[in-house]
Amino acid sequence: MKTRVVPALVASLTAVALLAACSGGTKAGGAGGGSGTLTLASVDQGSVEAVVKAFEQANPGVKVRYTTSGADQYQQQIRTQLSSGTAPDVMSVWPGNGNPATTYVLAGPGYLRDLSDQPWAAGLPDAVKTVAQYQGRTYDAIFGQNGIGAVYNQQAMAKAGLTPPDTWTGLLAFCRAAKAKGTPAFALGIQDNWVTQLVLYALVATTVYGPDRDFDQKMQSGQTTFAKSAWTTALDKYLTMQKTGCFQKNPLGTNYEASQQLVATGRTLAIVQGNWVIALLKQKNPKATFALKALPATDDPSATLVPAAAGAGYGVNAKAKNERLALKFVNFLMSPQGMNLFVEQQGGLPSLPGTGYHVDPSLSELSRFIKADRTVPFMDQRWPDAKVQQTMLSGLQEIFSGQSTPDRVLKDMDADYQAGS
């Protein structure tokens, strides 16, 4: 992680850095939190830079000291910083309840300022509002909607003479054809454990929620479990992709940054990620174009669903050293100018209607799925606490390293789910 004072913008950052450097940078920014200084911690590498620059330009004399880091590192440190009083004024906050830096987890102990009185809060769509709130109060300025799917390097696909598959059988054939041409189909960087979930979520959307949109309610009422549901089918398909050669060699030895480089340079044809990766890929290869498509898990294309939900937003530290600027920043973020700039940088879709945003061609399929109600929330947003996700992430790494089995991981997830309910 690096601490910077905009407008000294730099190129995209790696997600791996020293925790000590991150903590030191945030403390230094907080200590300088005068009337013209705002401190910010973000996971939006590659997109927050332009938003911060625009905010500074709109507010002459204001300086934003900010840090960026990968999700794993950020989630480990933010609670510590909040409890010790060293957290920044504004920070990335995920919706719902699925990881250690979500709305529920941070608002519950009183770490976040209530944003219900801000002008944009009442206008959030219901699907976004429910995961931006805790006990009926809004704590998360969620500016965009994100989706998970296969992001294809279109130039690499044309060179290979292949097209994106829309059936499960076609997906495996695509992987075999790509491997035969010497260019693996998908980059997979699961050295960073949060990446392990994305292929699985893309498959779960169709295999679990396709037949049963009420699956979450059934989990909450104890009518079903991970281990006794189609989660087993989705996990089997994930491993089938690995055995078929859909991924490059040694995914466990490949981090998120390296996986981006593989697809950006055409050494793989695609990557299964959230739409936020598109901005990072364009930075690495401005001449390439990318497109997000649904990852099929069935041989009926009309039955395919996509994980799409409110993305990470920003919360205000309840003990912010500069609350005035913190609120000014989140309100800029939720304005048409700030929101459109952020989602444009990320390759996303705005959370509020009426912003005049023109959907990037790379997201045309995701936009169609959202409008057709063929999406489901990110799975972890409806789980009782962050332990379930952490168990899943570490368990998936253990499966890939041969240290665990799908049945064991799903049973461990069930145990944590039931304990947290």
Identify the notable features of this structure and list them briefly:
421 residues; alpha/beta; D-Maltodextrin-Binding Protein, domain 2; 2 domains; 7-stranded mixed β-sheet; 5-stranded mixed β-sheet; 17 helices; 14 strands; 14% strand; disordered N terminus
Notes on the structure:
- The protein is α/β, with parallel strands linked by helices.
- It is built from 17 helices and 14 strands.
- The protein has two domains: 2-142 and 311-351, Periplasmic binding protein-like II (D-Maltodextrin-Binding Protein, domain 2, 3-Layer(aba) Sandwich); 146-309 and 366-420, Periplasmic binding protein-like II (D-Maltodextrin-Binding Protein, domain 2, 3-Layer(aba) Sandwich).
- The longest helix is centred in the C-terminal third of the chain and has 15 residues, at 386-400.
Compute the average pLDDT.
Answer: 89
User: Quick one: how many beta strands?
Assistant: 14
- Please give the CATH class of the largest domain: Alpha Beta
Distance between the termini: 35 Å
How many domain units? 2
Q: What is the fold named in CATH at topology level of the largest domain?
A: D-Maltodextrin-Binding Protein, domain 2
Backbone structural class: alpha/beta
Question: Could you say which overall geometry the principal axes of the C-alpha atoms support?
Answer: globular
- Strand content of the residues, in percent? 5-15%
Provide the helix percentage.
40-55%
Number of helices: 17
Provide the CATH architecture of the largest domain.
Answer: 3-Layer(aba) Sandwich
| Low-pLDDT segments, ≥5 res | 1-34
Estimated radius of gyration: 21 Å
How many strands, which pairing sense, and closed or not: the largest β-sheet?
A: 7 strands, mixed
